[in-house]
Amino acid sequence: MFIYLDNASTTKPCAEAVQSAVAAMTENFGNPSSLHRVGLDAQIAVDNARKIIADSIGADSSNIFFTSGATESNNLALRGICSAYGRKRRKIVASSVEHASVEETLSALEKSGFEVVRVSPESDGKFYSADFLNACDDNTVMITMMYVNNETGYILPIKETFQAVKRKYPDIITHTDCVQAYMKIPFKANALNADLISLSGHKIHAVKGTGVLYIKKGVRVIPVMTGGKQEKGIRSGTESVPLICAFGSAVEKYNPTIKERYQAVSALKSRLLANISAIDGISVNSAEDASPYIINISMGKRSEIMLHFLESKGIYVSSGSACSKGQQSGVLSEFGVSDKNADSALRISITAETTESELDEFVKILREGMATLRG
Amino acid sequence: MKEIVLVKYGEMVLKGLNKRTFEDMLTKNIKRRLKSLGHFQLTSAQSTTYITPLDEDADLGEVVERVGKIFGIASLCRACVCEKDFNDIKVKTIEYLDDILRNAKTFKVNAKRSDKAFPMKSPEICAELGGILLENYPNLTVDVKNPEITVTVEVRDTNAYVHAENIKGAGGLPVGSSGKALLLLSGGIDSPVAGYMMAKRGIRISAIHYVSPPYTSDRAQLKVEELCSKLTEYCGGIAFFCVPFTEIQEAIKDNCPEEYFTIIMRRLMMEIAQRIAENDNDLALITGESVGQVASQTMAAIACTDAVCRMPVFRPCIGMDKIEIIDIARKIDTFETSIEPYEDCCTVFTPQHPKVKPKLENIEKAQAKFDFEPLIQKAVENTVMKTFDYRK
Fold it and tell me: Residue B390: closest CA among chain A residues belongs to which residue?
């Protein structure tokens, strides 16, 4: 048995993505910067992917910059904006539940002298745009908020917040990490009022090692890497043509079905939650209106024990509060989950390709684990 | 609460009996531009087009962004639709503008009552609504001269509308209302600006570009195609003609004096452009020339080029300096593309010392030494056409 329920960590590349990556490695292998035809063909392939991704978020191709992944996109966004605009304005506002690639970068910026204000959810476990707006002032250089939380699926009110912030402080740069929202929730860059958006390839059935930073026209980002001035100097380094092509193909495949898949995944989530609710001792950490793609539960047994038990039966989930390799991130406690529940949290992340019978099997094994596991 | 976009016409309101033609053209252009964005209903009345979204999740921000670049429009704004009843106007104003009013310090109310049957006069609406807003928002004070927020109430035929923004439109006349012309697009900074400026006068643009492989590269052509594609945001769809020009350039190089190279080349370009234009039903040519900018753009040189022209040549950049042209290029987002460093046909074989004051008779004599006609015909025959539509 092989049931993969850890799609928020990574997804299986779709056939289209694999195919275009292979084509770019075997046939279209040129360096996009070469002046000859082989190079030009590679550049055309990269620009084709760029256009597909731009269209998917209602942007222009010239706003899309390829990176090695969302971690780099987030680094580039935060560090690049702070270098460009942070000489006088020294404050950054962020949510308290950001992914490590944002959170750790914020910590690094803090060490170099920036003040970071982390806005937490209120006691009801929800974020309010007014709290973010109140944290901003004339000294604020940027605000960064993820769209969908990677551990709980919680959807942050970025649209409202960015709108309010831009209205009151037009100079504050807005950045959002949309890794867990992209291709899952329909959004357009303009409608989000976002100046910068980070995207990842491997979370949407493309390949690891590629990401995007959307930079709104007129927003200045100082590059972190220097070199051959690829990507208009924003991100030097020869473009990974195969990975970029795979990214484009995956978006081409999944973009038209965002709404349908959202509904299908919502139905899967409801079914899963209904079945889980019949098991004693399990509580759900994800909010009801969270992204249906991520379901975070606590079940009273230590996460790792249950994770390995499920693994022994061929079911793969993630421990619910681990950013990487078992380290607790503290995000669940921000959402008001007790330490004990955080220790026993599991994250089940599904796709539209997950089947009902897979989820039923998961529930069956989970029930078995609940009955037999100790501690 | 229903939100729509109001589009107010530009100078075409000054038109007389043929105003309708301009209105229809504008409506058609708006419709085409919004097609990929969902379903919208367009109605026109009182020199205004009302864009009503029919889809629930319509992105009005994007509508404003796109329509803001369509020529023929003086201003546009997102507005809230109200009943023609002061109470409803009051309630909706507070509901619709709450966020803005809460964060502002000064405001004024502006009322326009085109429906004179409405019981309150404009000043009464202003006073009454202003008073209510002052009561509801203690943070606000009235400033009629320089307010942060101008709340506008428009009482029109079927409804009243409230809004607090007035975005400047692109101005000009609807593209297509003045006919078609052919733009000589080199890949430099000036020619896209020239195309933009003539489109503003209602001209639908086709573009012509000359390629000389191997002296010019595929990338140079792609750059020009990218410029075309960027121009579509303002000019609408563009037919792009790509002329193979290598043989002609080699023939000039081989047979004509070096100092006349550029002038003769430009005369031949004009000749080819006119033949393409005649086939494409274009009534004029457009170039990005600006007096004195380079040797081929001195008055004497332009006179020599013009001598072969049978149709009008529009040169909207003629009296502008480079900085002014660059400002427009930046505004229409062609600048960054234009400065990509690929050699184009105009810089191939550039003479060391071109004639800045050429005499027409000398040029004609020099050009007559070689029969370019067969090459011109061949170039026209082998011209490839491509069409560009909106980028998104």
Answer: A60
The pLDDT of residue A322 is: 56
What pLDDT does B57 receive? 83
CB of A25 within 8 Å of any CB in chain B?
A: no
Chain A nearest C-alpha distance from B266 (Å): 28
Instruction: Give the number of other CB atoms < 10 A from CB of residue A337.
Output: 23
Sort strands B204-211 and B238-244 into parallel, antiparallel or unpaired: parallel
Instruction: Measure CB to CB from residue B392 to each of A44, A60, A163 and give the nearest one.
Output: A60
**Cross-chain Cβ contact B391/A61 below 8 Å:** yes
Residue A277: CA count within 13 A, CB half-sphere: 6
Smallest Cα–Cα separation from A34: which of A49, A26, A46? A46
Give φ, ψ of A17 to 5 degrees. -65, -45
Partner-chain contact B392 A167, CB within 8 Å: no
- DSSP labels, B182-233: EEE--SSSHHHHHHHHHHHBTPEEEEEEEE-TTTS-HHHHHHHHHHHHHHHH
Domain ranges of chain A: 3-11+256-374, 15-255
Q: Please work out, in degrees rounded to the nearest 5, the angle formed at the alpha carbon of residue B269 by the alpha carbons of B265 and B272.
A: 140
Residue A136 DSSP class: -
Give pLDDT, residue A325.
54
CATH code of the domain made up of A3-11+256-374? 3.90.1150.10
Which tens digit of pLDDT belongs to each residue from A328-360? Answer: 678 999 999 988 899 899 999 999 999 999 999
Task: Transcribe A239-307 into DSSP letters.
Answer: --HHHHHHHHHHHHHHGGGHHHHHHHHHHHHHHHHHHHHTSTT-EE-S-TTS-TTEEEEE-SS-HHHHH
Calculate how close chain A gets to B338, using CA atoms only, in Å.
Answer: 14
What is the 8-class DSSP label of residue A353? T
Q: pLDDT, tens digit, for every residue of A304-325?
A: 899 999 999 999 999 876 545 5
pLDDT score recorded for residue A309: 94
* Contacting residues of A for B59, CB less than 8 Å apart: 58, 188, 190-191
Q: Which of A136, A178, A245, A323 is catalytic?
A: A323
Separation between Cα atoms, residue A374 and residue A302, nearest integer Å: 9
Contacts with B14 (C-beta within 8 Å, 6 or more apart), sequence order = none
A323 among known catalytic residues: yes
Mean pLDDT of chain A: 94
Distance from CA of B62 to the nearest CA of A (A): 7
A164/B103 Cβ within 8 A: yes
Q: Which CATH architecture has domain A15-255?
A: 3-Layer(aba) Sandwich (3.40)
What pLDDT is stored for residue A328 in this prediction?
66
Cα gap A115→A262, rounded to integer Å: 38
Mean pLDDT of B136-164: 93
B343 neighbourhood in chain A, CB within 8 Å:
none
Q: Which of B33, B345, B312 is nearest to B209 (CA)?
A: B345
**DSSP character at residue A125:** S
**Which of B57, B99, B218 is opposite residue A167, by nearest beta carbon?**
B99
Which residue, A198, A369, A196, A181, is CA-closest to A276?
Answer: A369
Kindly report whether the global pTM for this prediction surpasses the value 0.90. no
**B356 CA: distance to closest CA in chain A (Å):** 34
Selected residues 78-137 of chain B with any CB under 8 Å from a CB in chain A: 99-100, 103
CA A375 to CA A368: how far, in whole Å? 14
Q: Percent of chain A at pLDDT above 90?
A: 89
